[in-house]
């Protein structure tokens, strides 16, 4: 078989493997390079961070821990009585690993059925769209391509005050592998990942303290929802300290001593384990040869235009290694767009309609702009909210916490932002994404029939509330 391809993708995460499959479906001779190797060192592992040590395993643990917490604290009020409830950590991890193995194996099957050639090794872009692949033994081979898609992803950021260790100070990957529930768990960073992982172990019995350097909780989230979310987390026992900047850590007597400053004085806490979740950075080391022609910024992000083209014709970059939110679904959409553009089509990603989700309980999800953004931009807008406390289905599910919030343009009524905090927010937000993708007005949703009883009726009511017409809550009086 010739070593020249129409498309070579470097990276088999949710951006790379999707791009490879779509390119092959479009009739392009395609190969995908991935260096991830199984623990025994024998097999290539596809799926990248998301499937192996990110989105999927964390959601598996979130689901299991949520069921455990609900069984221990929520079932009795519903008439379900349990005794001697306990968690089997090894069994929980076994299930998580089984799900990961099934999904990563599924990608290998999709590659085979779509005719994608899988190449095992570390990929590096050379000049003239050549790709050098180094295998586990250090052997190199060079492949040629008409188009190269860089999809190398990202990795956790390590900070000087808390260098990673094997047993005590871990990144988000290590937090998925604990073999017992830590009695006291410290989480550095109150972002998506820190809150999700902190929630998992708090539900299973850890005393969790979250240290966040910023004074604002979830600054990218609409603050009406963020403030309510913070209240719920504190009710659940998460001790979230804002404005707390970590300065040092020391491991002694099998404990981690963490020093931090809160603006008033220096403080110290001790933990059995510490998770550092202060963000991620692009995985771009040894990805580009000096003469590749592709430009990166000082943070390691590859420079691309709105269609993910780099400065070199025929070389593209997608996902966490380029600008924009580090989200698996964003990477996948970019992968499809690039494959289509290579094939001669002209699609584009609507970056205004990419949803974000925090998979805690309650979940938080949103798309579009927040009130804070619109205020800073001087845009005139109107708001409709509806609480799940007034939703029959949410009450029946013992999940009547949170709200749906719709923000619309004051003059045109076009939906500008769609925000959900509460049960199944990750699913409900898709209704807002679809509405905004089609340029819907709040009235369009208000005139749509929603099934009863469903959580989604809260979307209907929030849309009605935008113009003061909600049925199942008292509306704010309109100004005369």
TrEMBL record:
Pfam families: Pyr_redox_2, Pyr_redox_dim. Belongs to the class-I pyridine nucleotide-disulfide oxidoreductase family. Its cofactor is FAD. The lineage of its organism: Bacteria, Pseudomonadati, Pseudomonadota, Gammaproteobacteria, Pseudomonadales. It comes from Marinobacter daqiaonensis. Its EC number is 1.8.1.4. It is an enzyme of class 1 (oxidoreductase). This is Dihydrolipoyl dehydrogenase. NAD(+) binds at residues 189-196, 212, 279. One of its GO terms (biological process) is 2-oxoglutarate metabolic process.
């Amino acid at each position: 078989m010739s070593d020249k391809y129409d498309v070579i993708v470097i990276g088999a995460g949710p951006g790379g493997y999707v791009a490879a499959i779509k390119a092959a479906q479009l009739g392009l001779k395609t190969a995908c390079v991935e260096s991830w190797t199984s623990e025994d060192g024998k097999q290539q592992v596809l799926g990248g961070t998301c499937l192996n040590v990110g989105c999927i395993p964390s959601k598996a643990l979130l689901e299991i821990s949520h069921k455990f917490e609900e069984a221990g604290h929520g079932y009795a009020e519903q008439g379900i009585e349990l005794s001697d409830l306990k968690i089997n950590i090894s069994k929980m991890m076994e299930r998580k690993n089984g799900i990961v193995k099934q999904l990563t194996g599924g990608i290998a099957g999709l590659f085979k059925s779509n005719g994608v050639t899988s190449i095992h090794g570390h990929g590096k872009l050379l000049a003239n769209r050549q790709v050098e692949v180094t295998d586990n033994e250090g052997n190199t081979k060079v492949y040629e391509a008409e188009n190269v898609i860089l999809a190398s992803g990202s990795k956790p950021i390590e900070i000087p005050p808390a260098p990673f260790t094997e047993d005590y100070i871990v990144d988000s990957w290590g937090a998925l592998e604990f073999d017992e529930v830590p009695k006291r768990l410290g989480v550095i960073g109150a972002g998506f990942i820190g809150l999700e992982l902190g929630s998992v172990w708090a539900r299973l019995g850890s005393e969790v303290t979250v240290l966040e350097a910023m004074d604002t909780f979830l600054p990218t989230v609409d603050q009406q929802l963020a403030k309510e979310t913070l209240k719920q987390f504190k009710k659940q026992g998460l001790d979230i300290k804002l404005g707390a900047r970590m300065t040092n850590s020391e491991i002694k007597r099998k404990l981690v001593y963490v020093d931090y400053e809160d603006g008033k004085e220096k403080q110290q806490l001790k933990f059995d384990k510490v998770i550092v979740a202060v963000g991620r950075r692009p995985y771009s080391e040894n990805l580009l040869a000096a003469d590749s022609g592709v430009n990166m910024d000082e943070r390691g992000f590859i420079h691309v235009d709105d269609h993910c083209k780099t400065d070199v014709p025929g070389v593209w970059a997608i996902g966490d290694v380029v600008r924009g939110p580090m989200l698996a679904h964003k990477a996948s959409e970019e992968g499809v767009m690039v494959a289509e553009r290579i094939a001669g089509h002209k699609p584009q990603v609507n970056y205004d309609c990419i949803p974000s989700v925090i998979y805690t309980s309650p979940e938080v999800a949103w798309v579009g702009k927040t009130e804070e953004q619109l205020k800073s931009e001087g845009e005139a807008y109107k708001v409709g909210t509806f609480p799940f406390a007034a939703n029959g289905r949410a009450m029946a599910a013992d999940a009547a916490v949170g709200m749906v919030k719709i923000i619309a343009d004051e003059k045109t009524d076009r939906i500008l932002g769609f925000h959900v905090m509460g049960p199944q927010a990750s699913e409900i937000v898709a209704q807002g994404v679809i509405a905004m993708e089609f340029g819907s007005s709040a009235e369009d949703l208000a005139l749509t029939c929603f099934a009863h009883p469903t959580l989604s009726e809260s979307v209907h009511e929030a849309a009605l509330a935008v113009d003061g017409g909600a049925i199942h809550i008292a509306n704010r009086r309109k100004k005369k």
